[in-house]
Design a protein that fits this description.
single chain; Arc Repressor Mutant, subunit A; Tetracycline Repressor, domain 2; about 70% helix
């Protein structure tokens, strides 16, 4: 008779399984990883992962949700600890974005470089993604409120996000030398900020 699992047991195993899955998904691609391989990584029977997750898609959603939450936490901490006005907060959030992506490339690629079908089936993943976008949008709202930028907050935030993502992907793919993404991100941010300044009264 299998022993009764406590909440701590379940949480610990799910965390270990997600850590192994993140590495294998990043190394081989999600399609090439099987539940049997995940079980083997942890030294458990092939059926054990099914006690914790319905299927591989649910594991992938959990891995991605964890990544988005860690990403959002890094951005939130950068914003909270930045001294000064909205410009300083914006610069800190931008630096945190690039730093996280370059320090956790496998996590970043799983978050943004794949289209997981039926994401709406996984509310934790949806909420984690929303949290990350909200942090990016909040600093843009601050810049607009202080009169530094003008425009629709969602559109402006998407522009800055696209610029940061593009610089990061180019460096991660070896198209830019190490360290270039952060420099390029700063230059693009300054250029866009000049173009988005409010019209003089």
């Amino acid at each position: 008779m299998p022993r009764v699992l406590t909440e701590t047991d379940v949480a610990d195993f799910r965390e270990r399984l997600c850590a192994a899955a993140e590495r294998l998904f990043a190394e081989r691609g999600p399609d090439a990883v099987t539940m049997r391989q995940l079980a083997s990584e942890l030294g458990v029977s092939p059926m054990t992962p099914y006690r914790y997750f319905q299927d591989k898609d649910e594991i992938l959603a959990a891995v991605r949700a964890n990544g988005f939450n860690r990403f959002a936490e890094a951005l939130e901490q950068a914003s909270d600890h930045a001294a000064g006005d909205a410009r300083h907060k914006g610069a800190a959030v931008g630096d945190a974005y690039v730093t996280f992506a370059l320090e956790h490339p496998h996590t970043y690629k799983l978050m943004f470089d794949l289209n997981q079908p039926d994401e709406g089936r996984y509310p934790d993943l949806v909420e984690a993604g929303r949290r990350a976008r909200a942090t990016l949008r909040d600093y843009v709202k601050g810049l607009i409120a202080e009169g530094v930028l003008a425009g629709d907050p969602e559109t402006v935030e998407t522009m800055f996000w696209a610029a940061a993502h593009g610089a990061v992907v180019l460096e991660l793919s070896g198209k830019l030398p190490p360290g270039t993404a952060k420099e390029l991100h700063h230059a693009m941010g300054q250029a866009m900020s000049r173009g988005l300044r409010p019209d003089p009264a």
